[in-house]
Design a protein that fits this description.
By secondary structure, the protein is an alpha+beta fold. Helices cover 30% and strands 27% of the residues. Strands 1, 2, 3, 4, 5, 6, 7, 8 and 9 form a 9-stranded mixed beta sheet that branches. Helix 4 links the parallel strand 4 and strand 5. Helix 3 crosses helix 4. The protein is globular and about 60 Å long. The structure holds serine. Serine (SER) binds next to strand 8 and strand 9.
């Protein structure tokens, strides 16, 4: 595995998807523009909803970005788990009615195993229980063994916001080893591939989108944490200067008291 820094991972990701014909986008601001359903941008796809529904068009029908995100719903997990941030960047590649599951899955695998050189044996995936197509691509084209592919229900493998483009998804996990007793910390989710097929309406109905889309989201800080072999995202390079400053201001040494660590 390559021990890349955060800026190197971001650049390699964007370059990789540019080489696959994607338009590189800048991160949108955290405050949504013209979207009353969201307080803050919480995913790479959130500022792109109009492109998924076809209301707007870009110069290309595939794009890639590293989007600044805040997930208010996750804030209570910050400090309790080893992988949640108040603020993070989400790497993503998007297809607006262009490519679909096959490319999204095989490119994700290529990036992780050939570019980042992750050990294939430590990667496993989940798919939506009814999604035989995604299962078959992982099983027969990527060549994952059956025990590395888990089928889960709507709660885990169907991605949606309050309203807007949504669909079944496939998550990729990296096994950090038995020393992590919490399964979510051991099998750290790094990438979510969403096969956007529906538009969820305000009344809760799912309308089939004319062209299916792809929306993927990979955690930049989590990937950095795995590549650098750190136990938590808070011990990676972007957080350590902040923690050091808090130590200096508070006189408290991070890592000496679990409860106080959460506050830091
Ligand atoms: N929208 C999906 C997520 O946030 C994938 O980008 O997980």
């Amino acid at each position: 595995m390559r021990r890349l820094g955060l800026n190197e991972i971001r650049e390699e990701y964007l370059e990789f998807f540019e080489s696959k014909g994607h338009l590189r986008l800048k991160s949108y601001p955290l405050i949504p523009n013209n979207d009353k359903s969201l307080l803050l941008i919480n995913a790479g796809m959130a500022p792109l909803k109009d492109y998924f529904t076809g209301v707007k068009k870009m110069s290309k029908n595939r794009a890639t970005s590293s989007q600044k995100c805040i997930r208010t719903a996750d804030i209570d997990n910050v400090g309790k788990t080893q992988r949640h941030g108040t603020f993070f960047e989400m790497l993503g590649n998007f297809s607006f009615g262009d490519y679909f599951k096959r490319e999204a899955i095989t490119w994700a695998w290529e990036f992780l195993t050939e570019k980042l050189e992750m050990d294939k044996n430590l990667l496993s995936v989940t798919v939506y229980e009814e999604d035989d197509e995604a299962y078959d691509i992982w099983r027969n084209e990527v060549g994952l063994s059956a025990e590395k592919i888990q089928r889960l229900g709507k709660e885990d493998n169907f991605w949606e916001l309050e309203v807007g483009p949504c669909g079944p998804c496939s998550e990729i996990m990296y096994d950090r080893g038995e020393k992590y007793t919490n399964p979510d910390d051991r099998f750290m989710e790094i990438w979510n591939l969403v096969f956007t097929q529906f538009n969820k309406m305000e009344d809760g109905r799912y309308e089939k989108l004319q062209n299916p889309n792809i929306d993927t989201g990979m955690g930049l800080e989590r990937t950095n944490c795995i590549l650098q072999g750190k136990t938590s995202v808070y011990l990676t390079e972007v957080f350590t200067p902040i923690i050091e400053k808090i130590e200096e201001l508070s006189g408290y040494k991070y890592g000496t008291d679990g409860e106080k660590d959460k506050s830091v």
